[in-house]
Each structure stands twice: as structure tokens, then as C-alpha cells.
Amino acid sequence: MDTPQITAPPCAPSPVPEDTAPTSGVIHINFRHAAGFTVIGNHLAQHRGLSLAAIGLAAHIQSLPAGARIGIKRLAERFPESETRIAAALRELEAHGYLHRSRVRLADGRIITRTVSHNQPGAVTHPVPAPQPRTAPSRPASLPTPPPPPRATAPEPHPAPAPTPPPQPAPVLVPAPTARTTPPPLLPRPQELTPELQRAATALLADLRRHAPQLVLSENDIHTLAPGVATWLERDAHPDTIRHALTTDLPNPLKHPAKLLRHRITALLPPPLPGAQDIAPARPGAIVIPLQNCDHCDRAFRSRHPGHCRDCRSDLHTAV
Which of 107-121, 172-186, 216-230 has the highest mean pLDDT? Predict the structure, then answer.
């Protein structure tokens, strides 16, 4: 009956002495790090305005060596958080001064993102260099021999001051050339813009969208381009000829229809018919027959009364 009966193994001893363990909360078991550690202030580890993801990301960034890449995609490959969550954490660190990102243009023209990590935001002192490991000084085998006394030498002559270079002239700033160096050509205008010419030119410009859907013009564009088309009609250009010159070989896509038509009206303007300028001054009192639009083919022709052009009248007589 004096032999003890052991039925259960004894409990393992507590790593913390009973007299120093707190009654509740976390218990720290700390060991001193000899290498591979990063010093982080409590202002970051216990920050009340940062999320846990931002605090952990700041601790990871401060533990990286200089020059390490910390792009959003690289961090998303390293950690299970998504790119959106990592980007939000980086913005939190920027807002509280722990991180600063800026766009920098290199000498070769490339633009990169430069990231600066601050382990203590708001500090204005110079950064403290990393402590170097201490090494025990080696004990010399014997006492060093004292150096011989210095010999008296003649003082060295002071060198003459270098001549001051002449001031360089200030560079002359030359403004960069603009996209357009010459003004656009003037739109041709007829010798006399009669109401008939204005009406025919306006109708021709408004009808261009039936032949080329890209040439949709506003009322202001039609009013501006009408004198140029009236010049073509004044020089006896057929409406089909004008329409063909303005709608053939259009660029795709066409961004500015009015500018293209202005260029073609000015650059492709046919010369006046031979003898037309000589006859007009010789007959200052001559009656000018107005232009009419054919009721059948909408072709412009000169007549005192509206109706059909010569070709349509011939077709009608042939049909009868």
C-alpha cells in the first residue's frame, strides 16, 4: 500500500513563471534576434487609423531591401489579397505618410513610379544608417613602434587662383512649332452671289449625304461652304461634276467633313471658261439669265422660268 500508482503523465511545466504571468490577455515570450530582423515603431503596429492589411503591408515593405519592387501585381502574387485590396492598403499608407509614390521621367524618356517608404512619418532628421555588427578589436602582438619626429619642411607655395570663366549667355528659348504653320486657304467666292446661285449651292451641299453618308454637314457648315460651290456653278461646272469631286475617295474614318470639303472646293476649283471674262466687261448692261433647278433631275440650268433642262425636255419629246 506504500507504492504510489501513477495513472497519468505529469503536466508540462509552464514556460512563464507563475508569479510573472498576467491573469488575462496576451503573454509574450520574447527572444533576442541576432540577425534578420526589422525595427518597427509602435506608432505603426498600433495605429488606430490603418487597417490590418495596411499595417502588415507597411511592415513587409519596411523589411524589404532597397531597390525591391513593390508593384501591385507583384504584391498580389506574393500575398493572397486581391489587387484591389492591396491598392486600397497602399492608398491608406500614402494618406498617413508611411508611403510616397511619384511619377519620374528617366533620361531615356521612360516614366517609372518611384516609391519611398517612411518608417516614421513627419520626422525631419537625417535617416540613421543601419547598425554594423560589432567585432572585437584584435590585440596587437607587441606595442607599436612610435613614428619618427616629423622633419621641418619648407612651406608649400599657395597655387594661384584659377581665372574665373566668363559668364555664359542665357539660352534663348525658341517656342515649339505648332501643328499648323500656315493659315488655311481662303474659300473662293463668285463675282456675284445671286440668290439663285446661293440656293443651288446650298441644295447641292445638303444633298451630299445621300451620296456619301459621311458628309453630314450642319447648317453653319453649309452656309460657310455655299459661296465656294457657287463659284463652281458660276464657272459652268455641272452639279454632277461637283458632286463627284467632293464625294470620291473619302478617307475612312472621316473626322472633319467640313474641313475636307473646304480643301477640295479650294484645291480642285476649275478655271473659268475661255472668253467668259472678256465678254462680261464688254456688256455691262447685259441681262443675266438666272439659274434654275430641273424639276426632273435637279440639274442647274439657265432659264427665265423654272421647268426642265435641255436633256430632260429632249427625253420628254422622245417619249411622246
Answer: 216-230
Report which residue type is found at 165.
Answer: P
Is the preceding omega at residue 184 within 30 degrees of 0, hence cis? no
Q: Name the more confident of 126 and 2.
A: 2
| Set of cell numbers at residue 320 | 411622246
CA–CA distance from 306 to each of 46, 79, 205, 300, 301 (Å)?
93, 84, 21, 10, 9
Cα separation, 81 vs 79, whole angstroms: 6
Query: What are the grid coordinates assigned to 255, written together?
Result: 473626322
| H or E segment and range at residue 115 | strand 111-117
Distance in angstroms (rounded) separating the CA atoms of residues 211 and 238: 16
Radius of gyration from C-alpha coordinates of the chain: 46
When comparing pLDDT for 213 and 1, which is higher?
A: 213
Given a cut of 60, is residue 129 above it in pLDDT? no
Rounded to whole angstroms, how far apart are CA atoms 233 and 301? 10
pLDDT tens track for 186-242: 888 888 888 888 899 999 999 998 888 888 889 999 999 999 999 988 888 899 999
Grouping H, G, I as helix, E, B as strand and the rest as coil, residue 302 is: strand
Whole-angstrom Cα distance, residue 76 to residue 70?
10
Q: What torsion, rounded to 10 degrees, do the Cα atoms 229, 314, 287, 276 define?
A: 60
The CATH number corresponding to 42-117 among 1.10.10, 3.30.70, 1.10.3470, 3.40.1000 equals: 1.10.10
pLDDT at residue 287 tops 90: no
236 in Cβ contact with 200 (< 8 Å):
no
Domain boundaries defined on the chain: 42-117, 195-275
Sign of CA dihedral 225, 230, 236, 241: positive
The helix/strand/coil state of 268 is coil
